[in-house]
Amino acid sequence: MSSARDAVSEGRASLVSRETPVVFVVDDDVSVRESLELLVGSAGWQPETFVSAEEFLARSRFDGPSCLVLDVTLPKLSGLDLQNRIVDRTDMPIIFITGYGDVPTTVRAMKAGAVEFLTKPFGDEVLLEAIRHAIERSRTSLAREAELRALRDCHASLTPRQREIMGLVVSGLLNKQIAAKLGISEITVKAHRGQVMRKMHIDSLAELVRVGAALDVPLVAHA
Predict the structure, then answer these.
(1) pTM of the full structure
(2) Distance between CA atoms of 17 and 144, rounded to whole angstroms?
(3) Helix (H) or strand (E) holding 95
(4) Deepest of 16, 51, 105, 134, by most Cβ within 10 A of its Cβ?
(5) Beta-carbon count within 10 A of 30 CB
(6) Given the DSSP bridges, would you call strands 116-119 and 94-98 parallel, antiparallel or unpaired?
(7) 113 and 177 fall within a common domain
(8) What is the CA radius of gyration of the chain?
(9) Bridge-partner residues for 67, per DSSP?
């Protein structure tokens, strides 16, 4: 199925894919930072290094594909503390590196969303493969966010009555049930429903239900 919403999503995802991914490195060891900077650059990505979590947090948010290579042990704010601070940044997967790995720390990091936990020393290719995987996850997340923004824009274009009818439709009510509930004719319901489908760029009821779930449209209980 092709729709204007899909075109917007694909266009934004394509724009993201043309950007050079950024690999952020946060490690207080200068030798590690320098070696990883060279390694990341040689792989064709853009490296950015930071000596502390605080320094990284001071950087403005990057809206393209990226990942974070993060040392567990850092001065003041630890790597795990930093992970907690940026838990909402699902578009920037975290790869932990450490020289003092232990099971509890690994479990905590992975449960909090880290994509990899590497114990030093590790081979260059092991890290590069982890970064490739993380960047692909970042692209997927960014494309999903772009699609959701487009859906929200379309939903915002609906009139209050159209949003009301959309909520009833995705809740499973038939046109005649919606008409009875709202005190309007079934023909009027059909007209509003058609406008909802057109404005949301949707061709089927199944797709409308999926979009309603993505937008957290409240469901209405019915007998």
Answers:
(1) 0.75
(2) 13
(3) strand 94-98
(4) 134
(5) 10
(6) parallel
(7) no
(8) 23
(9) 23
Q: Are residues 144 and 169 in the same domain?
A: no
CATH code where residue 66 lies? 3.40.50.2300
Q: Which DSSP helix (H) or strand (E) runs through 24?
A: strand 22-26
pLDDT in tens, 132-186: 999 999 999 999 999 999 999 999 999 999 999 999 999 999 999 999 999 999 9
Q: Provide the token pair at 218.
A: 């409240």
The whole-angstrom separation of Cα 197 and Cα 32 is 54
Largest CA distance in the chain: 74
> Residues 75, 174: one domain?
no
Helix, strand, coil in percent for the chain, rounding step 5: 55, 10, 35
Domain span at residue 146?
4-151
The whole-angstrom separation of Cα 6 and Cα 217 is 20
Label residue 209 exposed, middle or buried (CB < 10 Å: 0-12, 13-18, 19+). Answer: middle
Say if residue 44 is exposed, middle or buried (CB neighbours under 10 Å; 0-12, 13-18, 19+). exposed
Q: Pull the structure tokens for residue 32.
A: 């590690």
Interatomic CA distance for residues 216 and 187, integer angstroms: 27
Q: What amino acid is encoded at 171 in this protein?
A: S
